[in-house]
Design goal:
The chain is of the alpha+beta class. It contains two helices and eleven strands, in the order E-E-E-E-E-E-E-E-E-E-H-H-E. It has one domain: Jelly Rolls. The longest helix is centred in the C-terminal third of the chain and has 13 residues.
Length: about 160
């Protein structure tokens, strides 16, 4: 198949941008545009002691698979904790309520795959802008919940 027959030109690591969500970094390697919507692949870099900066959530339109590269990132899925370290993978099914925390003393890095590629860099950029508005404090949970809902994620209210 020639490049003229493809919908998308091939290239390596299409996004060099790292999107900051507080101290957490997101770097897209493949977006839905590069995969004809079949999958998105991105790195998540989580410093020691950090956690998911947006609300615990679920999503009904895609699976999310996590593959550990460095450190250990603990994913809580439907109330059960799964520490994901280098060489380990965890598939989070549609509808599962989840979040992550780095309880360790080392930074963690994982690859996340979303299939199909329902969300992409624009979602994370929007969350980044909202997180930045907090100036180091906690971001506005209501505003974050609105962003999540608009992008097809279901935020879970914190327990009182």
């Amino acid at each position: 198949m020639s490049q003229h027959q493809r919908n998308v030109a091939l290239r390596l690591t299409p996004a060099e941008e790292t999107i900051s969500l507080g101290r957490v970094g997101i770097r897209f390697l493949v977006t839905g545009a590069e995969s004809n919507g079949s999958a998105a692949l991105f790195e998540v870099i989580v410093p020691a002691g950090e956690h998911l900066p947006s609300p615990t959530h679920s999503h009904d339109a895609f699976e999310e698979t996590i593959y550990g590269l460095e450190g250990v990132l603990t994913w809580t899925v439907d109330g059960e904790q799964f520490p994901v370290g280098p060489g380990q993978a965890l598939c989070i099914p549609r509808g599962a309520v989840h979040r992550f925390d780095n309880f360790g003393h080392l930074d963690a890095k994982v690859l996340a795959t979303i299939s199909p590629a329902v969300i992409g860099p624009s979602f994370f950029r929007e969350v980044s802008r909202e997180t930045a508005k907090a100036s180091g404090g906690p971001p506005d949970r209501n505003r974050l919940a609105e962003i999540l809902r608009r992008h097809g994620l279901t935020p879970i209210p914190p327990r009182e």
